[in-house]
Amino acid sequence: MIAGHLPVLLVVLPLMAAPVCVLLRRPAWAWTVAALASWGAFVAAIGLLLQVLDGGPISYPIGGWAAPWGIEYRLDMAGAFVAVIVSAIGAIVVPYARASIEREVAADRIYLFYCMYLLCLAGLLGITATGDAFNLFVFLEIASLSSYVMIALAQDRRALTAAYRYLIMGTIGATFYLIGVGLMYMMTGTLNMADLALRLPAVAETRTILAALAFLTVGICLKLALFPLHLWLPNAYTYAPSAVSAFLAATATKVAVYVLIRVYFTIFANVDVFETMFLREVLMALAVLAMLSASAIAVFQTNIKRMLAYSSLAQIGYMVLGINFATLTGLTGGIIHLFNHALMKGALFMAVGCVVFRLQAANLDTIEGLGRRMPATMAAFVVGGLSLIGVPLTVGFVSKWTLVLAAIELNMWSIVVAIVGSSLLAIAYVWRVVEISFFKPTPEGAPAIAEAPLSMLIPTWLLAGACLWFGIDASTTLSVARASAAFLLGGAP
Amino acid sequence: MTSNFAPFLIFAVGAALVALTRGWSRRVVLVAVPVVGAINLAFLPEGGGTTIQMLDYTLVPIRVDRLSVVFGYVFHLAALIGVLYALHVRDTVQHVAGLLYAGSAIGALFAGDLISFFVFWELTAVTSVFLILARRTDRARRAAMRYLVIQVLSGVLLLTGTLVRAHETGSIGFDSVGLDGPGGVLIFFAFGLKAAFPLLHNWLTDAYPEATPTGTVFLSAFTTKLAVYALARAFPGTEILVYIGAVMTLFPIFYAVIENDLRRVLSYSLINQVGFMVTGIGIGTPLALNGAVSHAFAHIVYKALLFMAMGAVLHRTGRINGSELGGLYKSMPLTTVLCLVGAASISAFPLFSGFVSKSMVLAASLEEGYHGVWLVLLFASAGVFHHSGIKIPFFAFFARDSGIRTREAPVNMLLAMVLAAFVSIFLGVYPWPLYDILPFPVDFQPYTSVHVLAQSQLLFFSAAAFTVLKLTGLYPPELAGVNIDAEWVYRRLLPRAVRRAVAGLAPLDAGLRQGITKGVRRVIGGIGRISGPQGLLARTRTVGGMVGWVIALLVLYLVLNFV
Q1: Mean pLDDT over residues A446-458, rounded?
Q2: Chain B residues touching A405 at Cβ < 8 A
Q3: Quick one: pLDDT band at residue A493, thresholds 50, 70, 90?
Q4: Listed residue (A7, A250, A12, A31) closest to A129, CA to CA
Q5: Under an 8 A CB cutoff, do B119 and A229 touch?
Q6: Average pLDDT of A190-213?
Q7: What is the dihedral of CA A113, A116, A117, A119, to 10 degrees?
Q8: Rg of chain B's alpha carbons, rounded to an integer?
Q9: In sequence order, which residues have a C-beta less than 8 Å from that of residue A244 and are 6 or more positions away?
Q10: Cis (ω within 30 of 0) for the bond into A228?
Q11: Which residues of B touch A468 (CB under 8 A)?
């Protein structure tokens, strides 16, 4: 009975729990509701993935209205896979957030944080579940609006400006997406993705559809912060509360990447977007630029959160690159990196959040000798850092190996060089943190601090452990990513 | 009964326990690990074990066959000798690194595919460097860094080769690779670096003598022999190896004769011995391969014995240069005797282990018609006796009395040496247990009159030559000094050439240097300006600026598509 309604439960559970948080007001109660709802969503996502693995894509008509007229929720392998990682991060961040948010958000606003957190989660999960182009826009806005608020909740006043800038850029991105959807609706008269896929080939050569694709691409690239549309991201991640940085870095941009995949491989499934519309040249150039320039910028940063934000931009370059290959291996690489990067960036931002919890700031000059004072935290950081570099036995190696193979298959040797070069830059910025925290002596007069509380350490290590687990045994994640890619490339659903 | 326990794991767990324990319990763990490992090895089933699916490839972390088992046993034996010898050391770093190093080398032996092999290959590099760093001198630190760079370079070559090969053939299996494609060549060089091929060998003679007395014992056993194993698996019968091996047996002799640091002498003789194995692999017949493998087996034990004897000297006297030692037989009689056993083994005296293994390679080279190579090997054998068999014990324990009075080596060191000496003599007298576990069935009689006579003559004349040269004063005296071989190119020639060229162009030089520094500074400044905290790329932009980019990109798309 419930199993049949899982697609909608996935979204409705956090969506309905959000107002409950506002009603309860007490931080502890709000936290309990958030924890229950996010773990419930996680269970639902796992159930959905199992169903999809078992019986192929699931279609769920909302309110019993059948597909092209009503709104259809449609989960295929890629959607369920992204839903699992998003809800997993959502479920892991909540226990972590309790102590961290208490420290970083004013006490009378904590219930608001959990409310926004659940809304954001609902929006992100909705994007993965929906099969309707306009409904996707709605969820995109729910997720975005709530994330602006979450960023602005930080006590640092710069967060307010950062949130405002993000708001403007995010709104432009969403608007562009909506314009694209509108243009497609004008030509085809439908909003259902599967239906669009069937009708688009007939009108693919018209200027309206070309313009629609341009608007969609630019709008989504703005959301996923592809170079040079990334300018809103570093400040937003730097000044947001640590738990928010961890959550958004691990999920928000990933879901935007997922939207890009949806548009190219589901809506435009029957149109050869990469060959006819110059997409590949432009996007690939930007992806490579992102990988190299963002990594180079990260090397020079002194604020560790900011450094991680720039490293995220570089990693997004990898994902876009994988999508652009548009081959089975390439798309597999993009999807597996989406999953793996969520794990490692989550672990890294959480580790930095632990540092912030004890030191109020995470700058290179404040972490001298921290490896001895907070060994568990910094060890988790090292694991995440090694994944970023792509050391064997970590998830990063699996992603990069797949992407390099994809590039070799296409004989794009310059791309191989770029991937390796960007990894070398990653060694540089990760090593700086390791060197300063482990090999520099603790400065005299440094405050005596304890290790972060267990409620923060355990979630951090859960993700760091996952970085190792899925790095050593990548067979599950890889087979799912490969099946997703094969399904997406197989044509219209 | 069979076991499914990965050999590497035993060492990893052991290393963790060692890090946690102190005193007697630590010693028990240290000795137990290689023993348990060897017992586990005896119960490993033949063939591939569990597999791990990675991308399109199937990783086989444990694959057991005859070749890996022989090496497995001797590596366990070497690990046991190594930990016994180091038992008195209190330095946790050395113990942990030693166990992990031995464990990763053993793990590499049982890796059934190139990727797993690569992982262990890199692990041996990373773990072994701590054995050099643990000397805690500035010299050692620098040697360790040079060593690490070369080792990691070998790993990078291996990984690249694997990738290219995977792309060419679709297989990552670690079996016969061959030199057909660029992938094979890259892998060949990766192995060659670690096997200390001529001109690629400098890291060895550079780093091994700088390690701690106990660390060198570990180092001498694993890295090069792992490379020998890899060559035997991937490139058996590759003809170029015959000649590479022959050169390897030959050139170190001359350096060994003039070198003063006795552990460096042993390092050169190590290359010389590895040369015999490489030649055997290159010949590639069952007899030759058996010879290479058994020689590796015997060599690991007696070379460890020699390094241990020299380590004991270093441990007790703090000196290792031939010119500063001598007459130690009075204070260290047991060490002297044990060192002589090692010397006899490496010189291939009949009834010692070197004899029963080396003669196989020599016989194989004759059988296959490599007469020139056979002569080279013969000459090299004489040379071995000369520098390792005579020079080492002579200058350390006899020669003129240096006046040093010290005590016998510690009990655990003696125990380790006795174990190694016992194995060396046992195999020399009764080689059949070793012959039984070789990769191919053995149909070889070491003790024929021809073999024994030829070898004895060789040894006799070599000894005579040393005596004559020494008596007539023609033998190169032991001088304190640094001998530099091919590394001369990068440690002397290049700097000198650059210096001379620069000096000649003095007027130009100043301007040039200023120009270059200015240029470099400008580039760094430029990168900093672009990517630095307040740089062009990292600066916080106005909202208008950000939107500008959005519009630019949109226009770019529209123009591209509409024109």
Answers
A1: 84
A2: 55, 163, 166-167
A3: very low
A4: A7
A5: no
A6: 87
A7: 160
A8: 27
A9: A147, A150, A151, A153, A154
A10: yes
A11: none
Residue B418 buriedness (CB in 10 A; 0-12 / 13-18 / 19+): middle
CB distance from A401 to chain B under 8 Å?
A: yes
Percentage, residues of chain A above pLDDT 70: 98
Which of B397, B322, B338, B327 minimizes the C-alpha distance to B85? B338
Helix (H, G, I), strand (E, B) or coil at B1: coil
- DSSP H or E stretch at residue A274: helix A273-276
Decide if A211 and B558 are in contact by the 8 Å CB cutoff.
Answer: yes
Q: B280: which residues sit within 8 A by CB, 6+ positions away?
A: B245, B288, B289, B291, B292, B293, B295, B360, B361, B364
Q: Which of B113, B116, B121, B550 to substitute to test the interface with A, most A CBs within 10 Å?
A: B550
Q: How would residue A211 be classed by pLDDT, with cut points 50, 70 and 90?
A: confident
Taking each helix axis as running N to C, give the angle between helix B114-133 and helix B182-194, from 0 to 180 degrees, rounded to the nearest 10: 30
pLDDT at A492: 38
User: Which region among A474-483, B15-24, B524-533 has the lowest average model confidence (pLDDT)?
Assistant: B524-533
Give one DSSP letter per residue of A440-458, joined into a string: SPPPTTPPP-PPPPHHHHH
Helix locations, B66-212, DSSP H: 66-85, 92-109, 114-133, 138-169, 182-194, 202-207
- As a three-state string, the secondary structure of A395-408 is HHHHHHHHHHHHHH
pLDDT band at A451 (very low <50, low <70, confident <90, very high): confident
Instruction: Residue B80: count other Cβ atoms within 10 Å of its Cβ.
Output: 22
**CA atoms within 13 A of residue B259's CA, in its CB half-sphere:** 25
Quote the Cα angle for B93-B96-B100, to 5°.
135
Of B53, B166, B553, the CB nearest to A475: B53
CB contact under 8 A, B546 and A232: yes
**What residues in A contact B553, CB-CB < 8 Å?**
218, 221, 228-229
Specify the 3-state DSSP secondary structure of A105. strand
Residues in chain A: 493
CB–CB contact A222 B550 (8 Å): yes
Segments making up each domain of chain B, as ranges? 238-507
Q: How far is B559 from chain A (nearest CA, A)?
A: 10
Residues 6 or more apart whose CB falls under 8 angstroms from that of B11 comprise B33, B37, B79, B99, B100, B102, B103, B104, B106, B107
- Cα separation, A26 vs B347, in Å, equals 84
A260 Cα to chain B: minimum distance (Å): 16
Chain A partners of B538 at a C-beta cutoff of 8 Å?
Answer: 234, 297, 300-301, 310
The pLDDT tens digits for A260-316 are 999 988 888 888 777 766 777 888 889 999 998 888 888 888 889 999 999 999 999
Nearest to A282 among B118, B527, B557 (CB): B557
Q: Which B-chain residues 40-79 have CB contacts (< 8 A) with chain A?
A: 52-55
Average pLDDT over residues B499-508: 62
Predicted local confidence at residue B533, as pLDDT: 64
**Helical segments of A68-206, H only:** 77-104, 110-129, 133-152, 158-188, 193-203
Residue A98 and residue B557: Cα distance in Å, rounded?
Answer: 45
Distance CA B492, CA B497 (A): 8
DSSP state for residue A62 in the 8-state scheme: G
Residue type at position B195? A
List the one residue out of B370, B156, B124, B157 whose CA is nearest residue B243: B370
Q: Which residue of B has its CA nearest to A400?
A: B55
How far B25 CA sits from the closest chain A CA (Å)?
26
Inter-residue contact B112 to B62 (CB < 8 Å): yes
Which chain A residues touch B550 with a CB distance below 8 Å?
A: 169, 172, 176, 218, 222, 229
Q: Whole-angstrom Cα distance, residue B245 to residue B241? A: 6
